[in-house]
Write a structure and sequence with these properties.
The chain has 133 residues and is of the alpha+beta class. It has one domain: 3-Layer(aba) Sandwich (Cytidine Deaminase, domain 2), CATH 3.40.140. It is 27% helix and 23% strand. GO terms for molecular function: cytidine deaminase activity; identical protein binding; zinc ion binding. This is Cytidine deaminase. It catalyses: cytidine + H2O + H(+) = uridine + NH4(+); 2'-deoxycytidine + H2O + H(+) = 2'-deoxyuridine + NH4(+).
Length: 133
């Protein structure tokens, strides 16, 4: 569909903005908010690898900082040959905002694999897992 194609194209374009001096893996993300706004992100690496932030979390944090809380879909693209799947931390982070989020994982050649976040992380930790107040 046109919405998916648009997100994929934007995510692919965001790869050029990635700061990846160490792994050389460029990752771009395009997050579709419930109101139709598209918020972008790219990966930003750090010499202290644990401080690296993924494109998906960059986009979500940016969207939340702009007042968005509901998301419909995200496209994640990279320069890797296989589908660009969100890491476990990103899956958990995105699940916080809804288990029906659609994830379009994009390979460098343009192939797209589409899954819902609850398919990628079926047993995510959430507010219901916390003790009652």
């Amino acid at each position: 569909d046109k919405e998916k194609e648009k997100l994929v194209k934007i995510a692919q374009g965001m790869c050029a903005k990635a700061y990846c001096n160490y792994s050389k893996v460029t990752v771009g993300a395009a997050l579709l908010c419930e109101d139709g706004t598209i918020v972008t992100g790219c990966n930003v690496e750090n010499a202290s690898y644990g401080l690296t932030i993924c494109a998906e979390r960059t986009a979500v944090v940016k969207a939340v900082s702009e007042g968005h809380r509901s998301f419909k879909a995200i496209a994640v693209a990279s320069n890797m040959n296989d589908f660009t799947m969100p890491c476990g931390a990103c899956r958990q982070f995105m699940a916080e905002f809804g288990k029906n989020l659609v994830v379009h994982a994009v390979a460098a050649d343009g192939r797209v694999l589409t899954k819902r976040i609850d398919e990628l992380l079926p047993f995510s930790f959430g507010a219901v897992d916390l003790p009652p107040k």
